[in-house]
Amino acid sequence: MKKRTVLRGAIAAVFAVAMVAPAMAADVENILTLTAPKDLKGVPALPYTGEKVTFTTPDLLAGSITTEPNQGYVGQEFTLTGKGLPANADVTLTWSTADGAWLTDVQPNSINYRGLKFIKYPVKMASVTTDANGGFTFKTKAPEDFGGPHDVYAVVNGAAVAKGGFQTNPKFTMSPSSGPVGTPITIKYTGIGSTLYTGGISVLWDNGYVGEAQAVWTRGTAEFKIRASGSVGTHYVTAADGIGVQYMNLKQSPVPYSKGGMLPFKVTKDAGLLPSSIDYPQVVTPTTEFRTTLSNQGVDPKTTAVAKVNVNSAVVGTKVKLDVTGLATTGTHQIVWASVVGNRVNCSGTCWVYNAVPMGSATPVSGSISTDVTIPDHLGGWHVIQIKSGDMIEAQVPFYVKPSIFVYKDKAGKALSAGVALADKSPLPEDREGSGKPTYTFKAGEEITIAMKGVGWTQLDNTMAVTYDNSYIGYGCGFNSNGYMVIHLPAIGQPGTHIIDLHPLFYTNQPSFASTPYGMLPILSFANDNPAIALGYQLPAVHFSIKIVK
Q1: Engineered SS bond to 318: which of 91, 314, 330, 449, CB 3.0-4.6 Å?
Q2: Residue 126 DSSP SS3
Q3: From CA 468, how far away is CA 208, in angstroms rounded?
Q4: Residue 42: is its pLDDT beyond 50?
Q5: Which CATH number fits domain 34-168: 3.40.50.300, 2.60.120.10, 3.30.930.10, 2.60.40.1930?
Q6: Distance of alpha carbon 138 from alpha carbon 163, whole angstroms
Q7: Residue 10: pLDDT over 60
Q8: CB 152 within 8 A of CB 65
Q9: Residue 248 burial (CB < 10 Å; 0-12/13-18/19+)?
């Protein structure tokens, strides 16, 4: 249990009036085990029949199972041969597999990353019948499943009588194998394991670290994209198992089978600048109803009013239609945006409080309100739109703010650049913010700014990782600046096009090798293997490009 502190002094005084609910002095951990949403795409089915099997395992097994070959990649044909089993017996063959889950500590005003876990169990492969000598032969293919050793049991009358196994090795493919700078390259990696050392992979581009990928929900298969970068010629993509980063002497490790591989990519030309873009993950049905800042505290116990919005997610500045029905109270009602304010730096615990941002007011007509509201230029993530009569909440509805690219505009509102500018050279860094000259063209050594809106505040959405020409260089966050994140970095490299990519990452202020692996690194598999998806978050990858000139 950790003590939570709130902002004090002048800052706390400013926001005391706007408090939606008091911050908790202490929060007990509330660990949620997040399984894959049922409508999540790219999740292989359970191997073979998928039917779970229970059986006993005697200390001494009467028979034996040999496997030929005993290892290979997903899709490898192999043969199981059983000997010494009961004659003319009905045998159930089983295959060991697992379910993966992400762990989060869910609090009323935040979500903390707490790692992952795997639950292992056997499923039914097939039914076979032994011959008069107690033998059998069964041919099959390695299913799309977690990598590593898989136990195979022969079960008769609920008890194991023989044991064998098959080892699924990792392998990756990529497509295409050539193209100009900025070409999206799809990487598919199969055989990711279900253990700490094998549960993630590391990706390199010309020995520069691009990021990590997991397959916790996707049963050992990760599919994701990176972008080609660098000069015309051949470059190399390396992918191998690792806890975020590669374990370089795998042959001397306890998991020598998790070696991955390397493939070439040929950059054919520099085709010029690419437009800024943002890739959100698929929208799925969340596995939990929990939403930060949504609480029954302050709700009128007599109210039966219902609030709805025409969309439940959008970027800052979006106009949203709000409809409220069933209001029993009259007079002017306040429309309030429930959020938080503060930061998590230089604190003992978490230093933020709830606060409210006014969105307007309305007077019910026949118990109903229908009006447009504008999503505030504020933190991203889950918020709540509240309709209040006096101090009482009469209705409320959750709303999700998606991260978005900041657009630099002139005084007339014309867009000049999407997210990219030449940094302001004001002496004080706090005066620079996103101001500067919107441009995509730089001289080597000049300072670039990359700007985003709607960055959140939880450990899942507060931070974004930055890669430059496929090399991870650092991260930025947006809590202290109300979701407005401006990243400063130098323009480095030879004249030509250079790519800058942002990815989600897992932030944690309690790093632990065993319980919170894969933290503070770019998550390449963000689209379908990220605990945030199960909580209704839409955390994107964001793509920029610049041109360096002489």
Answers
A1: 314
A2: strand
A3: 10
A4: yes
A5: 2.60.40.1930
A6: 14
A7: no
A8: yes
A9: exposed
Cβ-based neighbour number of residue 25 at 10 Å:
10
Backbone angles phi, psi at 48, to 5 degrees: 55, -130
* CATH class, range 171-267: mainly beta
Give pLDDT tens digits for 45-83.
Answer: 999 999 999 999 999 999 999 999 999 999 999 999 999
What topology is assigned to 2-28+293-401 in CATH? Immunoglobulin-like (2.60.40)
C-alpha torsion angle, residues 353, 354, 358, 361 (rounded to 10): -150
Q: Where in the chain is the domain with CATH 2.60.40.1930?
A: 34-168, 171-267
Residue 529, CA distances (Å) to 105, 216, 224, 526 in order: 18, 7, 10, 6
Count the Cβ atoms, other than its own, within 10 Å of residue 385.
22
What pLDDT is stored for residue 436 in this prediction? Answer: 78
> Helix (H, G, I), strand (E, B), or coil: what is residue 374?
strand
Return the pLDDT at 85. Answer: 97
pTM: 0.91
Side-chain half-sphere exposure of 459, counting CA atoms within 13 A: 23
Contact in structure between 95 and 48 (CB atoms under 8 Å)? yes
Lowest mean pLDDT among 99-108, 243-252, 274-283, 499-508: 243-252
Residue type, 217: W
Give the CATH number of domain 404-549. 2.60.40
Structure tokens at 237: 């993509």
- DSSP-assigned letter for residue 181: T
| pLDDT computed for residue 353 by the predictor | 87
Residue with tokens 């008091």: 22
Written in H, E and C, the secondary structure of 491-539 is: CCCCCEEEEEEEEECCCCCCCCCCCCCCCCCCECCCCCCCHHHHCCCCC
What's the confidence (pLDDT) of residue 434? 56
Give yes or no for a contact between 55 and 158, defined as CB atoms under 8 angstroms apart. yes
Give the tens place of pLDDT for each residue, 248-259.
887 777 777 777
CA pair distance 355, 280, nearest whole angstrom = 28
* pLDDT score for 329: 94
Answer yes or no: is pLDDT of 16 > 50. Answer: no
Contact by Cβ (8 Å): 429, 449: no
Contact criterion met (CB below 8 Å) for 398 and 382: yes
The closest alpha carbon to 491, from 544, 436, 541, 547, belongs to 547
Contact status, residue 277 vs residue 500, Cβ threshold 8 Å: no
The CA distance from 386 to 157, in Å, is: 60
Q: Which region holds residue 425: left if phi is over 0, alpha if psi is between -120 and 50, else beta? A: alpha
Instruction: Tell me which residue has tokens 């990487």.
Output: 187
Rounded to whole angstroms, the Cα distance separating 449 from 543 reads: 14
Distance between CA 255 and CA 213 in Å, rounded?
18
pLDDT in the model for residue 68: 98
CA distances to 35, 108, 354 from 25, in Å? 30, 12, 13
Q: What does the alpha-carbon distance between residue 221 and residue 210 come to, in Å, rounded to a whole number?
A: 18
